[in-house]
Amino acid sequence: MITLLGSTAARLHLRLFPRLRTPLLSFLLFSVFQRYCSTKTGKLASHGFASMAAMSSLPPQRYHYFLVLDFEATCDKPQIHPQEIIEFPILKLNGRTMEIESTFHMYVQPVVHPQLTPFCTELTGIIQAMVDGQPSLQQVLERVDEWMAKEGLLDPTVKSIFVTCGDWDLKVMLPGQCDYLGLPVADYFKQWINLKKAYSFAIGTWPKNGLLDMNKGLNLQHIGRPHSGIDDCNNIANIMKTLAQKGFIFKQTSKPF
Q1: Which of 5, 31, 110, 150 is most buried, most CB within 10 Å of its CB?
Q2: From 84, 87, 151, 227, the catalytic residue
Q3: Which residues of 34-65 are buried (b: 16+ CB within 10 A; e: fewer)?
């Protein structure tokens, strides 16, 4: 925009004053045009159109890493009880660059209702062969802990927080299944950012249809298929990066346990 306005000013100067050859007069006239261009650019910026340099920079976030998580679970119509996690994906998102640095992704063998329903397979894209013979939730949680340690996320000097699309994953699903199986819930699962709330704070509207509405509101292409845990995680990460590019700073939305 600045280059365009500057070149326009130069052309106008040549058209309006083709016979002016005095260097001093030319300099003064061009200075007037430059000040005009600067004023117009300032007005554009005040309306939310930042320079390319400003748009490419990201604001400092409160966390070193965001851990994007989206469970898929056994389901049917009417709903079966208890529900069990069958896909457990996590993306490690760098809080400075908002780029994905590492991925944890496992399928989980359900034990209460080991046979997936046709409704569940149609919704999530997860077929029976993808969960048969896979580790139990207890085993997957142990591997999550190992992955967290390997990635340096258990270091008390490293600030990280989980991010989910809604509160269901970490407020209802994981603690509910752990309670049913008599398993402890690690402290790092007890605080998170609800992306729906973050989006509504940033944009001013509530995304009734979750990721689909957020992608539409930000003019983003939806990644993969809805209700695939790993695809949903990639959509969450993409939305977070876009909001950060707009200057949004993410904050914890969950209440302490």
Answers
A1: 110
A2: 227
A3: eeebeeebeeeeeeeeeeeeeeeebeebebbb
pTM over 0.90? The answer is no
Strands 72-73 and 85-94: antiparallel
Domain 65-246 fold is Nucleotidyltransferase; domain 5 (3.30.420)
The full set of domain ranges for the chain reads: 65-246
Which amino acid is present at 158? Answer: V
Active-site choice (13, 72, 113, 122): 72
User: Is 122 part of the annotated catalytic residue set?
Assistant: no
For 220-232, how does the pLDDT look when each residue is reduced to its tens digit (9 = 90+)? Answer: 999 999 999 999 9
Specify whether the CB–CB gap between 73 and 39 falls below 8 A.
no
Q: Per-residue pLDDT tens for 31-68?
A: 433 444 344 333 333 333 333 333 458 999 999 999 99
Would you call 227 a catalytic residue per the annotation? yes
Confidence class for position 188, pLDDT limits 50, 70, 90: very high
